[in-house]
Design the sequence.
């Protein structure tokens, strides 16, 4: 009878060990899949930020073109327009190159990738090296996912600043184009 009970206990122990291994493999797989998705998201955000930066550059070019159009309108509208253009200083030469001051949210304390360091905390061994190895992989994966998540937060904050700046510039250019179209319409009539 005691032999039969020991045999049942050993069988139950082995079954629970296999279940623990299966669960640890599933956890490690899910963490790796999540990390892959987070990394792809980060890459996509980086690509979108590059597009926003190109748009910003094109808006700056549009502003220069609008300034040239305004000068041409002065010449067309008045015999003294050329003289006014001569004495009007170019704002770019006056102000120098304008750079947008982008404050990083890492200095503001919202997100910091240095906070994503792996913990050196030791956990109690399960006695099963497969499960222990899987738990180590899960821990590393979660630490990396935290780092990528913080990076995504920083990228989103940077994009918000860029989008707000682009919105302001687009509204400004729209107002300038409307004024220029009105002036051209009056000169044509």
Sequence:
């Amino acid at each position: 009878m005691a032999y039969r009970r020991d045999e049942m206990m050993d069988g139950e122990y082995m079954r629970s060990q296999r279940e623990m291994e299966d669960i640890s493999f599933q956890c490690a797989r899910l963490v790796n899949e999540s990390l892959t998705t987070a990394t792809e998201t980060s890459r996509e955000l980086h690509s979108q930020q590059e597009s926003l930066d190109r748009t910003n550059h094109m808006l700056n070019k549009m502003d220069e073109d609008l300034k040239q159009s305004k000068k041409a309108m002065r010449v067309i509208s008045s015999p003294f327009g050329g003289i006014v253009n001569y004495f009007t200083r170019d704002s770019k030469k006056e102000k120098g190159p304008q750079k947008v001051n982008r404050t990083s949210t890492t200095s503001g304390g919202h997100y910091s990738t240095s906070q994503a360091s792996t913990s050196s905390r030791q956990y109690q061994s399960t006695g099963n090296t497969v499960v222990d190895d899987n738990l180590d992989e899960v821990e590393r994966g979660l630490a990396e996912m935290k780092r990528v998540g913080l990076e995504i937060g920083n990228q989103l904050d940077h994009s918000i600043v860029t989008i707000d700046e682009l919105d302001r510039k687009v509204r400004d250019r729209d107002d300038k184009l409307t004024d220029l179209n009105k002036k051209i319409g009056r000169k044509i009539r």
Notes: The chain has a mean pLDDT of 79. The CA atoms of residues 17 and 35 lie 27 Å apart. Residues 2-77 form the longest helix (76 residues).
